[in-house]
What we know:
Blueprint: H1 23-30, H2 34-50, H3 62-71, E1 82-86, H4 94-100, E2 105-110, H5 113-125, E3 132-136, E4 152-156, H6 161-168, E5 177-182, H7 186-199, E6 206-210, E7 218-224
Parallel strand pairs: 1-2, 1-4, 2-3, 4-5
Antiparallel strand pairs: 5-7, 6-7
Helix pairs in contact: 3-4, 6-7
Amino acid sequence: xxxxxxxxxxxxxxxxxxxxxxxxxxxxxxxxxxxxxxxxxxxxxxxxxxxxxxxxxxxxxxxxxxxxxxxxxxxxxxxxxxxxxxxxxxxxxxxxxxxxxxxxxxxxxxxxxxxxxxxxxxxxxxxxxxxxxxxxxxxxxxxxxxxxxxxxxxxxxxxxxxxxxxxxxxxxxxxxxxxxxxxxxxxxxxxxxxxxxxxxxxxxxxxxxxxxxxxxxxxxxxxxxxxxxxxxxxxxxxxxxxxx
Length: 244
């Protein structure tokens, strides 16, 4: 399906349908990409659930918990940026970012076969193949498989902050930026991991709030890769036989 500006919901109630109370917010955040965001929500609420990419209780929270929660990250993503979404899972936040921001190029980096199969199907279905690529692999071992050196690496509920920094700093250019969606304990996590983040070539972690006007602000931890700390090359790990 080619990219479209159509944003009218089909007649009847579809799985993953956009709640009425979020229509104005979604229209503003996704703009011309809202029609495709609706289709992506439907895929998450059907194939995403049946394949185990989202839990069964997530069906009624596709928009607020997943799409809106992800797309607000756009507020701190640079114009024309190259983005790698680490541990992309069902495509969050990478696909919502790509739908809202046609200026971005995005790689969805995910190690599990069943997830990359779903992501590949979604990218094709939404007509995003010209600027969204699915790569099966792990950070940082898959750095050679990336089509570009990213300006930003994004992550959502992937790992503790210090481990996430160790995985992502080797992927990006110097002065590249990690943007990690975090929960309510983010401030404490920044304090607890400060020395380790610095050792791993990260600059001081910053706590940001995005989506303040959506009614459910989202916490983001921003870590810039330092210019003065070299990073040793990472040797690839062998993929476990039969991983899926």
